[in-house]
Amino acid sequence: MPYAAYWLNASDETPLYTRHWAPEGPSRGALMLSHGMAEHAGRYERLGLTLNAAGYHLYAIDQRGHGRTAENGEPGHYADHGGWGKVIGDLHTLNRHIREEHPDLPIILLGHSMGSYIGTAYLIQHSASVKAAVLSGSNYQPVALYRTARLIARFERWRQGPLGRSALIEFLSFGSFNKAFKPNRTPFDWLSRDVQEVDKYVADPLCGFRCSNQLWLDLLGGLADITPVEHISRIDAALPLLVIGGDRDPVSQGKRLRDLAQAMTRAGVRDVQLKIYPEARHELFNETNRDEVIRNLIGWLDAHCPVRQAETTEEPL
């Protein structure tokens, strides 16, 4: 079937809602998606169908606390304990599932925003399990910033509890993102120049929610862990890596994507490519130039996933 949705059990038996967009013809590779904060994998249908037409599978889980996976937990909350390790482990579960279904296909990690951070942590631990990786809408900042932010998150957890939803954390993390796009039409103008895509996000009941204090603690601790170059150096030096984003994305402002690519290079990753799109905002795959973005992505994938030679049963002459 071109599309299927089902439940995949994580290592702790948490059911993960999983989507699979499959090409109808021969396959070149399979992408495993790690989506962003306060969204879900169903928003990547257009990307999945376009990848299918080029011969690629797209597998995507709704991460813990997100999408339909949140039906088996708490929306906006990874876990009460060990959440960061669990979301990394969920990607490994997805990777093994893809490998079981397609033992001969190269697997490519695609991480967007929060998913790029989880994806980087996954690469530090399991880069041998993938052929290549793409980080979209990512960021790179000093460890000291994450440690300071984590002190605030700790205070908010003490004040409100692990499941509290802090307006202070929301303001400090997302509060300034819309300022560059005044006059603002919605609180999420920073996501894309395409007003229809922004409106879809606003209208989606599974998007735009506030995350728990504990999730922020998990995430900020994870960011502090994946930032030091000596930790990044655990990624396979031969792994092809593509970093993409918009130069008007308030998450990175473009320049911090350059910082990320440079950190990967300093850590020893030899094949790092950087593509920053002028005027584009946070969600490249929902941007007005998305056709260009996806076309370039597929070109990069094709360069790293050669067409497999068809097997023949004919007798030699």
From TrEMBL:
Serine aminopeptidase S33 domain residues: 26-289
Domain of life: Bacteria
One Pfam family, short name: Hydrolase_4
GO molecular function: hydrolase activity
Keyword entries, A-Z: Hydrolase
UniProt-listed PANTHER family: PHOSPHOLIPASE-RELATED
Name used for this protein in its record: Alpha/beta hydrolase
Organism this protein belongs to: Pseudomonas triclosanedens
